[in-house]
Structure formats: C-alpha cells, structure tokens
Amino acid sequence: MIELDRVTKYYGNKLAVDDLSLTIERGELFAFLGPNGAGKTTTIKLLCGLLFPTSGVIRVAGFDLQTEGEKARQLLSYVPDQPFLYEKLTGREVLQFIADMYGMEATKARRRIGDMIDIFELDDFVDDLTERYSHGMRQRTVFASALLHEPEVLIVDEPTVGLDPRSIRLLKDLLGQEVKRGVTVFLSTHSLDVAEELADRIGVVASGRLIACGTLDALRHQAALDGSLEEVFLKLTEEGENKRVVSRYQAPPI
Asked: What is each CA distance from 6 to 124, 161, 174, 184, 199, in whole angstroms?
C-alpha cells in the first residue's frame, strides 16, 4: 500500500531524508521511530503529498504521489501532531465539511457521522464550537474526521500527546480495529510502549537514514540486546549517531 523507493529530500543544502526505501503492506501497522530531527516529520509530509522528494518515488496504493496525487489522497487520511479544526464550526459541522470534501453520498455521510460520534464519544460537545474544545476533544474530533471516509491508508503523527489514559486506550483499540479492517497504518510516535504493543513492524531512523526495520525480535537481534523496545531503540540510535559522526570526520580515501 505504501512504497518509498530511494527517496531523498533536501531543504536547500540540508539533507532531511537520505535514500529511504520502504514497503508497507495492506493491513499492517508500521511504527516509525526516531529522535528529534531524524527526518520523521519530513517523511510524513512526503507521504501525504505535502512535499515532493528531491529524488525517488513514493506510491500509495500504486499511485505515484507526484503525478497521481489526487487519486492517492482520496485513499489516505492524515492525523497531525497538532490537531487543527475550523474554530467557528461545531464538531458536527466539521465532520459534515469533511464528508462534503470527499464527495460522500448524503445518506452514507449521515450514517458515518453518527458512527464517528458514537465511536469517539463526541456527544457531549459535538454541537459546540470547536474553539471551546480541549486538546483531547480536538484530537478525538480530528481522528473522527480522518476515519469518516473509510481510508485505506492512515498516517498518524504523535497521536497520544495530551490524551488521558482512557483516551489512549480508546485510540489503541481503534487502531487495532482499523488494521483488522485492512487499513494500512503508518504511525510516528515517541510513545515506545504504544509502538511495542501495536506495531507489526518497526522502522528506526536517525539523521535521515533508516538504520533498522523489522519486528521487535528482529530489532533486538540487530541490537544484540534482549530488552524492551526502549532499550533497543536507545542502543540502535546511539550506534547510528556514532557511525554518522565517524563518517563525517573520516579522512577521504587517497
């Protein structure tokens, strides 16, 4: 469902994503981990078609995002780390606006809006202006909007920030249900416990490069460490950073 083929992205002279190749299958939850500045946000923007790569190709459901972006974006949804809502609309009006944007048939739109209100427990505030919403209320409304049109690919950036434990549990259960439905989930998070619990595979990036990718057991094997994901992640990223520093100062061959 998601293919990145030798994707590189520069901002001027700054290299943000370095020769990234990755394939994520239908119905897979892929956790994308890395320290701050590793290239995670840039990768997500590339996957959403908000940026184009300097080189390489990105496909969603077989559609090249650069040449067939409209078709690809019909099949995906993006939940950013900072939930944005039109503040002079109510939550229900936001959901209706999203349904209209995707051209959903009116009867189906009403049914799906009702489903989302129930699933995300929006009843108590869905008819209030979103400018009054707390962060958690905004996040739940944004998730409801993202799932409204039943996307095939869901891209999620730091979904648990600002959520209480009950909302985090709801989110985990929901992501699991979406994967069972066949949705491909690309999850970028600093919450390693969430990744450890939910992910089918995990990718670790450092300094724009994919330094590890596989199941948790595969990552443990690569790190030569039989520990938690946190311990494995810290060792892999420390080794990746050390290699980058060594290569930066290594004398060129004569």
From this structure: 47, 31, 32, 21, 23
